[in-house]
Design a protein that fits this description.
The protein has eleven helices and ten strands. By secondary structure, it is of the alpha+beta class. It folds into two domains: 156 residues, Jelly Rolls (Sandwich), CATH 2.60.120; 104 residues, Arc Repressor Mutant, subunit A, CATH 1.10.10. Strands 1, 3, 6, 8, 9 and 10 form a six-stranded antiparallel beta sheet that branches. α2 packs antiparallel against α3.
Amino acid sequence: MPVSFLGIKNIGLEPESVQLYTPPIVWKGDSVGHVGYFDVFFLVTQGECFLNVAGQSYVVKSGQLAFLPKGKLRQYTQISKSFSMYELRFNALADGESLMQTLGLADGNFVVDLHSDEALRLFESSCHQEFTQSPLHRVAMCSSLISIIKIYAEERQRQGGSDTGFFKPVLEYMSENMSSAVTLSHLSALVYMHPTYFVKRFGECFGMPPLAYLNRMRIYQAMGLLSGTEMSVEEIARSVGFSDSSYFARAFKKQTGATPTEYRNAFKRP
């Protein structure tokens, strides 16, 4: 595909697979984490999941599109009782190098809000094409993939100045300080807001108060430690910012429906 944009001469698209996870198909994710071999798009259609890419943590909700660059550590899982999402794995090259990297999409904010059903229709179409394996399904999937990349790029650019982008310093601070005591006054100071107004604006943007968002990130982080380490529950509680292990156990069960020990027994890797 010859193009002149950014001096690129050739673009190579290789859709690997597209999968719809919806009950009774269960998506458990990877709470331990791994370095991805493929680029991946997640489109959450119901519920929410936790995503950590290269040290940046997000709670991805319904109607949001997330990108996971290949070659970077990724960790993700979901705890919603009802959860559905599309997963599209692919390789995209520009003159032999990563197209997403060339376009500046492999760093920074990895989650965008969607304001139309266009991306959903493209995922649905790609899933149908892969299932039917029609003679032109690869061509159609490539067409859908480039459109999804375009939507993601446009939303990233548009939302760079939105509330989501505005709160980036807050999310980064939360990710880097899960084990520390975090106060509203400090979080609000990061974006030069009065704490009361900060709570209001953050809640409008993310659907929950900032400290509730932080605690949800802590619980997700604990899920990875429970399934991927030999740390005791007490050690894990302290490492994610809970000084009281009993309170941690209650908060964990409220979020996941299981105690920390029950979760570890169900999901621990050999």
